[in-house]
Amino acid sequence: MESTSEQKRPVYPLKRTLKSSIRLNYNHLLMKGVAGYLINPRIPIRGEDIRIADVGTGTAAWALEVATTFPMAQVHGFDVSDEQFSPLYNIKNVTLSVHDAFEPFPPEFVGHFDIVHVRFFLCLVNDAVAPALVENLTTLLKPTGYIQWFELDALATRVFKSNPSLSTPSLDQHCSGWKKPHERAAYNWVSKLPDLYRSAGLEVIAKDDHPITDQYRYMWGLSSLFTYEDVVDESPLGIEKAEEQRQFVNRLEAEMKQGAGFDTNFICVIGRRPLA
Question: Residue 176: what are its φ and ψ, rounded to 5°?
């Protein structure tokens, strides 16, 4: 039987195949370019015993790069599945384990981390479960520890046209789909993350905006196409049949190649657990 939180939250709609892992790694490199950092520069990196959690680690691309960039850190990646975990090879300061971020963490991780990193939980979180998730993630933080949450602001996504005369019915449909989500999905929580932090007892350090730029616009559009192809259930647009979905993806790609795309904003919300 599903728990109460499982009954309220969205079901993960994507696959965990080789192509899915390629998409996650692609998005990791893309978002590093968009943001310009792995760890927000507002978060201090000090000392020789820094403990960092990557929740929803996926392929562990972020965790592995952070571990090699900051070799003095101990990085622990958590994910509900280990199907996409990357081999660690000779990277000794990374540990990966299976854990559902919506469930209480084992006692050894409570109050354990200096930094908690979260990215792209949009398809897993809705307005009903967001407060409890933030509270659960907060338990991982040491006093004065930081949480960094990087997320797509879906409701702010608009169609971009390099030429105002371009016809973009498929891109328009995609953007309107965010306004009419699945019954278990609602995305107002993204813009309210600072309020959710405060309700969980955190200090809000910053809410930084990272709008997509022309350099990355087409790359981000391609990522959206990869996501459509990865969807296993009915999409927010109501496209149920595989052939219909492929045709829709083809129309999106054609409109992008004409010079259209998405005006997308990504937000990074930094919070800090008080000392007392």
Answer: -70, -25
